[in-house]
Amino acid sequence: MAVIPVERKPLTLAERTYIPQIVHGLKTTFRHLVAPNVTLEYPEQRPEIPGGYRGVPTLVRDPNGREKCVSCQLCEFVCPPKAIRITPGEIASDSAQAHVERAPQAFDIDMLRCIYCGLCQEVCPEEAIWLQTQYSMTGYTREEMVNHKDRLYELGGTLPDAHLKWDKKKAAEDAAAHGGHH
Amino acid sequence: MTSPAKTELVTVNIDGKEIAVPKGTNVIEAARLVGVDVPHYCYHPKLSVVGNCRMCLVEMGMPAVDPATKAPVMDPATGRQKINWIPRPQIGCATNASPGLHIRTQTPQIRDCREGVMEFLLINHPLDCPICDQAGECKLQEQSTGYGRGYSRFVEQKNVKPKRTQLGPRVTLDDERCILCSRCIRFSKEIAKDDVLGFIDRGSYSTLTCYPGRKLENNYSLNTVDICPVGALTSTDFRFKMRVWFLKQTNSLDTESSVGANTVVWSREGVIYRITPRRNDEVNDTWMADSGRLLYKAVRAESRLTAKESLAALLARAETILRLSPGLAAVVGSGQSSVEEQFLTRQLARALHAPAYLVSRTAAGDGILVSADRNPNVRGALVTGLIDTLPQSYLDELGAAIDRGEVRTVVSVGEDLMAAGLSATQLAKVSIIHLGTQVCASSVAAAVVIPTLTVFEKAGTMVNQQFRLQRFAKAVAGPVGAFDDLEVLARLITAAGGSAETSDLAGVWGRLATEVPALRGVSYAAVPETGVVLDSSPWAALPFVEGESLHHRPARAVANV
After folding, report:
1. What pTM was computed for the model?
2. CATH number of the domain encompassing residue B126
3. B345 and B470 inside one domain
4. Close Cβ partners of A24 (under 8 Å, ≥ 6 residues apart)
5. How many domains, in total, are found in chain B?
6. What is the chain A residue with the closest CA to B206?
7. Cβ pair B204:A182 closer than 8 A
8. Which of A85, B208, B378, B402 is the most exposed place for a label (fewest CB within 10 A)?
């Protein structure tokens, strides 16, 4: 291996006093002393969440309070880390939502597994699962980190629905029952 | 029924590929042989052809001949015989192979036809896929992806028809999803011989329904669910239980009778969700009885036996009992055990110098896929030499031996001795070592209970009424506290003072192939999925109880003709 000798240049007087370097450093310090803050006093202050943010996945209801999930299990299928667990169920025939037929009996998302990829939201044919703005999930036990169905609805709340396709379905059924379009 | 009677071969040309097929084979089956998919809904290989879905349209042509001289007309461009193509498409299901038949399935005309047919079929089909149990195995879903136009031009209102109709105790009908293919109607009429289904009304009002006052409640009703190409007919038991794409399929056998219908067990993570038939043209075609589909419930039944002790502790107690009264034991084998277990049961009886019994179960057969012999594997016991005559329903001989004091210990391999005719006082006189999966009078009275596995939790073979050796595979793992039958039997043989036996399937098969004459040359791994027929001549004189069924004519019926 070739050895290249490097000549060390002697320091100048200014360099030997260190004063220019100290002044240069203090300039940076004083500039930031008067510049506006870039940090937040978390957790008292919370950041503003930009649109399209992928937070904790949640389940939502439609404006009429109907749970939108029909437990088709596509999100369970697509979920890369297998964080989602659904037990499908049937809606009771005396319920006002009986025409929807299916709803989840149990719906668990293991937030220790979730990677916030948003594929569940993308695949959902009913627009029932949304990654919203909630980003902070903490807990003392593994069980606490599993979001069950009631917690998912509590986090999700209500989202507007442009289609209300099940309401249309019900209206068509009612019209047919009263001699409308067969 | 499209199975050709003659074996005369004719050459047809499908998408440029020549293939020789039996004369009379229809175009869908011929195309399948060259790897060309002709989409279809109403056609089913085991049902009559009606041609009402129009999905299997193909272009068809015949070699041109001069009308006057019958000389072939040659095409100067290609130097081959000219093909006269029929200008309009034909349905493949009702077009039978004839010499020189030419078929095209990939032309623009056919693509347009398929798009058009798909569009009509989807007009009134609800967009139910998220809540439809058929999703994932739905022909309409698959073929609208493969052959549909991809978007809808339909702006009118879709039809409203009855949803959630209970056609019978096991079948739920959603009329909106029905595409009127009539497979279920033809199945009920032709195979189940219970003509209860039909269409009423005309045009878009057409609705599938049951005959007034009747129900779809025959023991084959769930086959209509299997053959329904869409989600119109669904199984009430499986409804909304699990998506099919999660389920693992394991080949198994229907153990409810000696027909041995081939099945697929659908399970996910150790839980079985449903059982469906598997096609075997020599045994069950594509059908199975409803009763056989419920057998998986035994796996997680309340009455399932499990042990809190280890197998070693149970076997130590069993050994103590066997040593107490040497030479005074009896072994009751089972026609529900596999061939391998029956072989080890025979070895156990020999090691104990004990007589071996089998319990027969009989009931009326239905002439289709449930035979009179409700044990799936009595012939296996004959083949392995566990028994040499047909079993009786009741163990009267064993009962008399117990009363005479000649038997002090009974090893029951999966049989309920009380149900087999022994009285409570007789059971009290003997020490019972009971192997089994469910709580029964025999397990309650037993001195040692060794829980074992159900047919879904182990692998093996069975011999059906045709002397056809068929394999079944392990679908799910057994519960904690239940032990593999072969291991239990092998260690019982050692406890009884016999030579040490191998307890794994391969080891037992090594011995079966050498020691059992009927299985000479047969290896477990080489048994095809459709089974292998064994030489039944040594047992030809036995009066088997089975009557005639789908693919079985008993020897005496044949002899009477």
Report:
1. 0.91
2. 3.30.70.20
3. yes
4. none
5. 3
6. A182
7. yes
8. A85
